[in-house]
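Input sequence (93 aa), recorded before submission:
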Amino acid sequence: MAHTGFEILRSAGHGKMDYVDKSAVMKAFRAFTLIELLVVIAIIDILAALLLSALVGGKEKTKRAACKNSVRQFAIACHLHAHDHEARGSAQS
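Predicted structure, token format:
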């Protein structure tokens, strides 16, 4: 029997060698299909988009907090200035 190279030898465990179809072995080590790879990439893309939107939301909250603090500090400064200068009157000549 001539072998075409599409078969591989397999030991039967008793010293006897059998020929096995290579396609049967390759099914056991099946690679990912294009559809499976695209699905995985799409899932990773969705997760990355969710993460980025959460990070952008965090940046926006940080900017708001900094702005709120600046307004608060300005209000305190105005209040202290008014308190320090209330004895002199509002208009100076």
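Checked by second reader. The chain has a mean pLDDT of 78.
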